[in-house]
Write a structure and sequence with these properties.
Helices cover 59% and strands 0% of the residues. The protein contains 4 helices and no strands.
Amino acid sequence: MNGEPAKKALIKSEDRKADLALLRDLKDRDDLTEDESDAFEDMYERLENGTFATMTERQRNWARAVADRVGIAYERLSSEKAENVPKGREVKFVGVLSSDGLKSALATRRR
């Protein structure tokens, strides 16, 4: 594997690890409802045994909301990190913003 498919596979693998860590922290909490605890246990087991590769967005959003409610910190997904966000369009550089242009503009104002 190389190129884009390898990058997507790596991101998915890291996302799976983040999902497992979040569910591991949630499933053993005493301050969750029985339904929440059972659901997180089930999701964790399905991820662990390979039935699911990662959680769905809806599952992840719910798990994060519960984690926020009970004070559990969670790791951002690889796909949400800045280095994995597509680059936007190029912006034309304005010379005034360069350090030399800024210095000359300030020098002109001081006179």
